[in-house]
Amino acid sequence: MGLFTQDIKTMDDLFLHGLQDIYYAEQQITKALPKMIDKATNRDLIAGLKAHLEETNKQIERLDKVFLKLEQQPSGTQCPAIDGLIKEADELTGEIADEAVLDAAIVAGAQAVEHYEICRYGTLIAWAEKLGHDEVVRFLTTNLNEEKAANTKLNTIALRKGVNTKASNAA
Question: Model pTM greater than 0.90?
Answer without folding.
Answer: yes
